[in-house]
Specification:
two-stranded antiparallel sheet, elongated, mainly alpha, 2 strands
């Protein structure tokens, strides 16, 4: 009876959603990367700039136009999206796996936060970092290339969904990994190949049939292709199809993270 009364009291106190706890977790995840902004925001901007510089110098003059635009303009949206998804993944995955290794994940699991609130709190950090990185790179592209998004709302949609998708994958990976080398293996052998082999630096129309089919089974391809449509108005596939696949993939992976949190999979002894 006492336990039942305590549960009722908690429900009345926090209501259907623990807004204070959700806000606190989201704020923690955002402040976590803002406190080291030179690593989490400045470093991705520099890395994206180096990619642009190297590919422009090494390939640009000889490559000619791709899908009706010059090579530098073609790869710019792909590099932007690739950087966004890598940072969104890193934010959630590192937060969870570091907490597990250090043994303080209990500080996140003990407060009265539901599985859904935990997912949303971690998502807030990953999406916020992804959007900040995107804005920084977009400003740099405007300053140095004069590149202005042709469909800004479409570009914003795909960047936001892409950050949410990879934040969800980061949560699942962080929960699954028991130590840093397992996390590094997931990053090196899953996330990085998916990002690089998704039309970032090339049009998939140039691929042989087998690789063409494999690429179209990669949801990250639709994120990069959609961002390219939003930025420069060209794409390999329908932006509407890409939006549907991206949203379905995002919902599916975050539901998986919700199930893991709800069951305490690899989180509770």
């Amino acid at each position: 009876m006492q336990q039942a009364g305590q549960m009722i009291a908690n429900e009345r106190r926090f209501g259907r959603v623990n807004w204070l706890g959700l806000y606190t977790l989201g704020q923690r995840e955002i402040l976590r990367f803002l406190n080291v902004w030179t690593q989490t925001l400045l470093a991705p901007l520099v890395t994206a700039g180096l990619f642009m510089l190297i590919f422009t110098i090494a390939i640009g003059p000889r490559r000619g136009e791709v899908m009706g635009v010059d090579f530098t303009t073609f790869i710019a949206p792909g590099i932007l999206m690739m950087t966004v998804i890598q940072n969104a993944f890193a934010n959630t995955s590192s937060s969870i796996v570091v907490s597990k290794v250090q043994g303080n994940i209990v500080d996140t699991l003990m407060p009265p936060l539901s599985a859904g609130e935990l997912v949303l709190g971690y998502l807030a950090g990953g999406v916020a970092r992804g959007l900040m990185v995107a804005v920084a790179i977009a400003v740099a592209l405007w300053v140095f290339l004069g590149l202005v998004p042709q469909h800004p709302l479409t570009a914003l949609f795909f960047v936001t969904v892409g950050a949410a998708l990879l934040s969800g994958i980061g949560m699942v990976a962080g929960i699954y990994a028991e130590k840093f080398d397992q996390m590094a293996a997931i990053t090196n052998f899953v996330v990085t190949p998916l990002a690089f082999l998704s039309g970032t630096f090339y049009s998939v129309e140039a691929l042989p049939p087998v690789m063409y089919d494999i690429t179209h089974a990669n949801p990250i391809f639709y994120l990069i292709d959609g961002a390219r449509w939003g930025m420069i108005g060209v794409s390999d596939s329908s932006p509407i199809l890409g939006a549907v696949i991206a949203v379905v993939s995002t919902v599916a992976i975050n539901l998986t993270a919700w199930v893991f949190f709800r069951r305490g999979y690899r989180l509770k002894a």
